[in-house]
Write a structure and sequence with these properties.
The protein is α+β, with helices and mostly antiparallel strands. The protein has helices at 18-29, 49-52, 81-92, 100-128, 140-145, 152-172, 185-204, 208-211, 213-223, 228-234, and strands at 10-14, 34-38, 62-65, 78-79. β1 (10-14), α1 and β2 (34-38) form a beta-alpha-beta unit. The longest helix is centred in the middle third of the chain and has 29 residues, at 100-128. The model is unreliable at 1-5 (pLDDT under 50).
């Protein structure tokens, strides 16, 4: 996707996933021009040597910025969604405050998402999806990669941990509009994962919106933030360019 009429400096190599939507939201919120190069992870294109040269870990998304050139004169690829968010925040001067306390607060919650919320909700979805009989209720990637059989222990383990993390974030949001007070890359990191898992978690706890009221209010608030709807739609499930 090419937005605007300026020369493209940014290229996002990606597929439609929660981690990728962190970046499409950030790009939209910052009103940065970029193009998408689609990499079909449903066909295992992330394991091709050309892509592994950009990210040895074979994971999307990867951001290429023509202004970020290494000592060999080549564009330095940026992988890991948290690193990409941090890079874009520093490049744009937005959603990461210069005040050392606020900056550190944002980084703590950014890394909390990358180390805790994302992996746990990913595992919750992976194992819980095995109980879904009609795959039309799942996105195509989850339908393909979900656990091959129901594992009650794994489901219980990641369900319990998912709700524990919801409680952690709910407490953090007490008397706050956003995770660290002002809107930041920490919010952009957390929102796509929670948006994706919310209905599944709600099927387990129908009172999730009232039980985790601060979090439920934040979810509603995030939907109205400039760039969020656009970023989510850009990499909506099933979007292939």
């Amino acid at each position: 996707m090419l937005k605007g009429h300026k020369p493209v400096m940014l290229k996002l190599i990606t597929w439609s996933t929660q981690n990728a939507r962190k970046i499409s939201i950030m790009l939209a919120a910052c009103q940065l021009d970029y193009e998408i190069s689609w990499l079909n992870i449903e066909q295992n294109e992330q394991h091709q040597q050309g892509f592994k040269a950009l990210n040895p870990n074979s994971k999307i998304p990867v951001l290429m910025d023509s202004e970020l050139v290494n000592e060999n004169g080549q564009v330095e690829p940026i992988f890991e969604s948290a690193a990409i968010l941090l890079y874009l925040a520093e490049k744009s001067g937005r959603f990461l405050e210069n005040n050392p306390i606020q900056r550190m607060a944002t980084l703590k919650w950014l890394f909390w998402q990358a180390a805790n919320l994302g992996p746990v909700l990913g595992n919750f979805s992976h194992f819980a999806a095995a109980t879904v009989k009609d795959t039309e209720h799942l996105n195509t990637y989850l339908a393909k990669t979900r656990a091959p059989k129901v594992d009650e222990y794994a489901i219980q383990r990641f369900t319990k941990e998912s709700f524990r993390l919801l409680e952690v974030l709910n407490q953090q949001l007490e008397n706050k509009a956003f995770i660290v007070g002002n809107l930041s890359i920490a919010d952009f990191a957390c929102y796509p994962w929670l948006e994706s898992a919310w209905l599944g978690l709600q099927s387990i706890n129908p009172n999730i919106n009232s039980h985790y009221k601060n979090l439920g209010d934040w979810m509603t608030r995030m939907k109205t933030v400039e760039g969020v709807e656009e970023g989510m739609k850009t990499l909506a499930w099933g979007r292939k360019g």
